[in-house]
Amino acid sequence: MPKRFTESARIGEAGMALIGMLVAEMGFIWHPRRVDHGIDGEIELVSPNGAALNRVLLVQSKARERRFAGEDDSGFWWLCDESDIGYWLAGNAPVLLVCSHPDTREAWWVSVKQALADPAARSSRRVRFDKRQDRMDTSAAGRLLELALPVSEGVYLRPPPRPEILLSNLLRVDYMADVVWSAPTRVADRREGYERLRAAGPVAAGPVAADWVLWGGEVFSFRRLGDAPLAPLVDGPAKSTLTQELASSKSDDARNLLVQVCNRTLEDAHAHQLRWYGKHNYLYFRATEDLSPLTIKVDGGNGRTVFSVHPSKRDPSRVAYYRHYALERQFLCLDGDWYLELNPTYHYTWKGVHNSRWAAGYLAGIKRIEGHQAVRRLTTFWAGYLRGLRAPSLFDRPPDARLRFGWLVEFPVDRGIDDAAWKPPNASSDPDDSDDLGASLPANGHEPARRGRRRRP
């Protein structure tokens, strides 16, 4: 009768081959044993610089195509033979029990000396596997080194290769107006300038023009100064300077002037929906006339509620505060190219107009609960909004000819970041997922009066 290569033998060999492949990906050396007395092979550890460390881990392989006992998406357990346990615990080298599904290229490991150190666990003979924490792949290399090396000897293990593309908060400036116009002016400050513009009468419905800068007795703008609506600010002949001349100037004053012109132009371009808050120098979405929520869609997304009402937790019939999406921004010139740095934040008001006295507490509360993905989505929202890729509405204007934006800058990296490892406890994936800002904040349905300080007796 011919000898047969049984199915169980094939699965066992496949499990051993899978371990060898995974060990090689970690940068270690796999030595299978042909004589099995409860140990199927050894892992010889290698330092990141390629030096063999003369440290080994013993491995017992258990491979199955069917599910292990109690297996679900989170884990499973293995019932060890009493003879195997005695053999494993008697030695002086760490022993790994590796359970695998060769057909799906999945394997998990546990140090049996640690798993069975508790007398109750030793008596039950059960070893529990956590599929997430105990996965055998390149991410396990550091733990295996720590398991075999003495505490007194430290080894740095380089991160496993994991290419990734990082999305930055730098929005490309695709276009600035070709020239900056300037003209003499007797306007002393912006308040006087706005008074002149209002006195001249509104040229069109909407806020007063804001895209101008006062500097050294002159007014500067991307807009031609001799024409409406900025003509009332001019007290002399206008001239033009190439934008590129200011951008490439060695003078800090010239570049700072250009940044101010860009900031005021951005403010003016979106004045129909955004207001500038001078105290903290950010832009925020205006309240709607009837204080109803305002939702804006960009880049084909589901939309973001950029202005919203939040009722009191104690009395839902009353309003605690209104929340506005806000944006801190800064124009930057890096290696000759211009970008707008985006830092999303929030603005809090009472009745949509008056600044909330409790804004700092509300802001701190939402910053505590929002996670990386929330900040990423807020950043991409603002990028899409400023770029102009949003669902059209009756209030939309044609694309601005003075300042246009492209896409957020991306950086390819050779070593990725484990987002789960950096995620703070109870972090929300989206700022609208939770609004629990802390019981210490006012929740009585109205903006309370400021209390005076108590004097000491």
Q: Could you explain how this protein is built, in words?
A:
With 457 residues, the protein is an alpha+beta fold. It folds into two domains: 7-148, 3-Layer(aba) Sandwich (Trna Endonuclease, Chain: A, domain 1); 169-422, no CATH class. Helix content is 24%, strand content 30%. It has helices at residues 7-26, 82-90, 112-115, 119-124, 141-148, 190-199, 243-247, 252-269, 359-369, 372-387, 419-422; strands at residues 29-32, 41-46, 52-63, 75-79, 95-101, 106-111, 126-130, 164-176, 179-184, 213-215, 218-221, 239-242, 274-277, 282-285, 294-296, 304-311, 319-334, 337-350, 354-355, 403-413. Strands 8, 13, 14, 15, 16, 17, 18, 19 and 20 form a nine-stranded antiparallel beta sheet that branches. A five-stranded mixed beta sheet has the order 1-2-3-5-6. The longest helix has 20 residues, at 7-26. Mean pLDDT is 85; it is low at 431-446 and 448-457.
Q: How many β-strands, per DSSP?
A: 20
Helix content: 10-25%
Radius of gyration of CA atoms, rounded to a whole number: 33 Å
**Which ranges are low-confidence, i.e. pLDDT below 50, for 5 or more consecutive residues?**
431-446, 448-457
Summarize model confidence as the mean pLDDT: 85
Number of domains: 2
Helix vs. strand class: alpha+beta
Cα(first) to Cα(last) distance is 105 Å
Count of separate DSSP helical elements: 11
SS strand fraction: 25-35%
**Major beta-sheet overview:** 9 strands, antiparallel
Shape: elongated
